[in-house]
Amino acid sequence: MKNPHHVNLTCCKCHEVETFSVESDDYYAWRNGTPIQEVLGYLTVNQREILVTSKNGFPICGDCFDGMFQR
Ligand SMILES: [Zn+2]
Question: What distance in angstroms lies between residue 29's CA and the mean position of ligand 1's atoms?
Fold first, then answer.
């Protein structure tokens, strides 16, 4: 990675911490509205999930996200 952006997010439900690095250009492209799978497709599903949910201020890890829809 030429310019890594470090992501450090805590799931607001289980408090699991996700830390990973993304390419800064990709990160900002996503923040500016590019679909996440186009620019950050190299992340795992869980990493993308917590990143997407962090955008509204309540990061949720993949496990908790799945749990929310399994009833
Ligand atoms: Zn969680």
Answer: 26
Q: Tell me: the pLDDT tens digits for 23-49?
A: 999 999 999 999 999 999 999 999 999
Domain spans in the chain, listed from the N-terminal domain onward: 4-68
For the full predicted model, state whether its pTM sits above 0.90.
Answer: no
Cα–Cα dist 55/12, whole Å: 13
| CA 35 to centroid of ligand 1, rounded, Å | 23
Give, as one character, the DSSP assignment of residue 19: E
Q: How far is the CA of 10 from the centre of ligand 1 (A)?
A: 8
